[in-house]
Every structure is written in structure tokens, then in C-alpha cells.
Amino acid sequence: MTKASLRYIVLTSLLAALCAVGGFIKIPVFTVSAALDSAPALLAAFVVPPIYAGFAGALGHMATAMSSGMPFGSFHIIIAFEMLAIVWIFALLHKKGFDKLKWAWMLVANGLIAALPFYFLISPAFYIGAMPGLLLATAINIAVAIACAPLLQRVKKMVKWEG
Prior knowledge:
It contains seven helices and two strands; from the N terminus they run αββαααααα. It is mainly α. It has a two-stranded antiparallel ribbon.
């Protein structure tokens, strides 16, 4: 294991832990469990390779689900895989320099597309009912990440790490 890969694993673990902490900050919505668990995963895109950022998002979601009592049972595994893919693509867009597109991707993917399987698995009414809460929670997570990103970029320059 190289020094760089160990650094990425440690940073991913720390960011996943921050996702877990954010999972305790609940956003009151009716049909879904929403929390500030995505913001640290989005910030991971700024400091670790895309796949690591994706794992931070997936682990963060699972920590939030467990702290909420797993209200959707095994469906949380589906959501964790979705978070891995969504944050991974977000991080790829960041690395390619698509600064505005990455935020739009996150809002659409996490706020609308991620819940789409539940349209079929639970009910269309659940999907429609979940949309406002998911969009609100995603927008708040994005706002937190946008607010914290410049500070994270400064810290990254100060410690001169790669990523």
C-alpha cells in the first residue's frame, strides 16, 4: 500500500465519519429520513479520488440509516449504492472542471432520480410525497458543501496534499 492510497483511505474514513455526524442533524420532512449526511461526501470530491468520495457517501448514508433506526429496512442498501454512484459522478464532474454542472447533477440525481426505484418498490404516492423533502434536504446539503468548499481548498493548499 502506497502512502497516497493510505492517505486517501484515512481521509475517506474521516469524511465518512463526518457524514455519520451529519446524519444526526435531521431535516424535518414527512415521508423520508433526511439529514446533513451528504455535505461531507460532496466535500470529499475536493480532496480524494472520485471512487473514494463515492464510498464516503455510501458509508455516510448507511450510518445515517442506522442512526435513524433503518426506517426503510434493506432498501437502505439500494440507497447506499445510489449514493456511491451519485457522489462518484459528482466527483468526476468536479475533477473535469464542470463546476456548475456538478451541483446541478447532485440536485437532480439525489433529489429526483435516487428515489425513482421506490416509485415501483413502494408506491407512486410515496415517490411524489418524498420529492419535496428530498429536494429540500439535497439543496441544504449542497448549500453547506458550497459554503465549506473554499475553506477546505485553503486547508488543502496549506498541507499540500495531492488529490
